[in-house]
Amino acid sequence: MGQKKLWMKGSAKLLDRKYRKAEKILLKALKAKDDNLIDRHFTYNLLIKLYNQLQGERRDAQEKHIYYCREDIKQLSEFLEEWKKEYGDISHLRFPSIIQLGSILEKNEEFQEAIDLYNFALELGLDEGTKEGFQGRVKRLKKRSQSKEKK
Q1: Do residues 16 and 61 both lie within one domain?
Q2: Residues 25-37: pLDDT tens digits?
Q3: In Å, how far are 60, 61, 84 from 50, measured between CA atoms?
Q4: Are residues 88 and 110 in the same domain?
Q5: Full residue range of the structural domain in which residue 34 is found
Q6: Residues 103 and 81 in one domain
Q7: Which residues are within 8 A (CB) of 122 and not within 5 positions of it... i.e. 6 or more apart?
Q8: Angstrom distance (rounded) from CA 11 to CA 9
């Protein structure tokens, strides 16, 4: 079975809350022979969603959640190039890897790493789909970082 069919099947299992089956299928999708950047990105997004939902139920969920966020982020530049060649417009795409990892970093008060992550998103021309946007997040975190340093 091809990568796209696998991640779509994994998505259906995730929606049905069949988490073990979804995980097995999605991990298999990452090993598919027809691996490509676009399908890998969507597989990562589903793994991110899966492990986010499993936090509190599985000890390794947060670690895996962060791992797949970082894996997706590593390939975003290449993914976007491929997407633009294939489909053009990226304005409707969302990137949970950036938003969720950024939130974790903020929560852990790792402000500079979160700022760097959001700046990377801005360099790529990404839109988070909120009024604040990544620019607003950077501005807010710089303020939080400065107030923390003053203490």
Answers
A1: yes
A2: 999 999 999 889 9
A3: 12, 9, 27
A4: no
A5: 1-93
A6: no
A7: 134, 135, 138
A8: 5
- Give the pTM: 0.92
6 and 58 in a single domain? The answer is yes
* Count of Cβ atoms closer than 10 Å to residue 71 Cβ: 17
Residues 100 and 63 in one domain: no
As a whole number of Å, the end-to-end CA separation of the chain is 56
Matching residue, tokens 């990562």? 44
Amino acid at 34: D
In Å, how far from its chain's centre is CA 101? 7
Tokens of 73: 């982020």
Tokens of 39: 């399908």
State what percent of residues in the chain have pLDDT above 90: 83
Task: Say which residue the tokens 């991110």 belong to.
Answer: 48
